[in-house]
UniProtKB/TrEMBL annotation:
It comes from Actinocatenispora sera. One of its GO terms (cellular component) is cytosol. Coiled coil: none annotated. This is Crp/Fnr family transcriptional regulator. The keyword ATP-binding does not apply. Residues 151-219 form the HTH crp-type domain. It comes from the Bacteria. Residues 17-120 form the Cyclic nucleotide-binding domain. Pfam families: cNMP_binding, HTH_Crp_2. One of its GO terms (molecular function) is DNA-binding transcription factor activity. The keyword Magnesium does not apply. Keywords: DNA-binding, Transcription, Transcription regulation.
């Protein structure tokens, strides 16, 4: 983990939100940031916490979730580095609308709201990227709502696994996610989701390796999810 503490000269490079900024602006913003390291299962922030900082993931991955009155959880999305968390609360100053937990050892740069807003006010390119991120979030939430209406549980599991694969380079790389976490993502019980995954494994579409899921027939999973067999290039 010591290697994570050596922050490079341009730590915001590769993060889509800051893609339109020049090197000088990225460095100026990064200079106000604090580097933090989180262990797996550690909470970065909780629903209701002040929305006064932006998290820039440099390494690792996190789950964004809401908690119910009985303590049950619904995972809204997974975010992998390089990416950002908390940009919406940063703009409106409202408390966090969800909680975030590391699902792998994770390092983040934490940017204060004041430094971020100062740059937003002086650089239109950053505001354009924020609007783009807000639009992507709205589309994702709309799609999730539609999936729960129109897809059965196996379809939602298949689609979730396909979407998770989109964040890794090799389609045969394991999806480092427990079956319980998949259940939280698709809104099903762990027992029901485990049965779906066993069925998919029996059909040769995937296999499990410890806590990870390896996809072995992506085309079949895409068909079961109601997705085009070949994604658009």
């Amino acid at each position: 983990m010591d290697r994570w503490r050596a922050v490079p000269n341009d730590p915001l490079r590769g993060v889509a939100l800051f893609a339109g900024l020049d090197l000088r602006s990225r460095r100026r913003l990064a200079a106000s940031a604090e580097s933090r390291v989180y262990r797996e299962a550690q909470v970065l922030f909780r629903e209701g916490d002040p929305g006064d900082v932006l998290f820039v993931l440099r390494h690792g991955a996190v789950a964004v979730y809401r908690s119910g009155p009985a303590g049950d959880r619904a995972v809204l999305t997974l975010v992998r580095a390089p990416n950002v968390l908390g940009e919406i609360s940063l703009l409106d100053g409202a408390p966090r609308s969800a909680s975030v937990e590391a699902i792998a050892p994770t390092e983040a740069l934490v940017l204060p709201r004041t430094a971020f807003l100062d740059l937003v006010h002086t650089d239109r390119r950053l505001m354009d990227e924020v609007f783009r991120a807000m639009g992507a979030m709205a589309r994702r939430l709309t799609e999730q709502k539609a999936d729960h209406i129109f897809l059965d549980l196996p379809g939602r599991v298949a689609k979730t696994l396909v979407r998770l694969l989109a964040s890794v380079e090799d389609e045969h790389d394991p999806v480092g996610l427990s079956q319980g976490r998949v259940a939280e993502l698709v809104g099903g019980s762990r027992q029901s989701v485990n049965q779906v995954i066993r069925t998919f494994a029996h059909r040769g579409w995937l296999r499990t390796e410890g806590r990870s899921i390896v996809l072995t027939d992506l085309a079949a999973l895409r068909r079961r999810a109601g997705l085009p067999e070949h994604p658009e290039s």
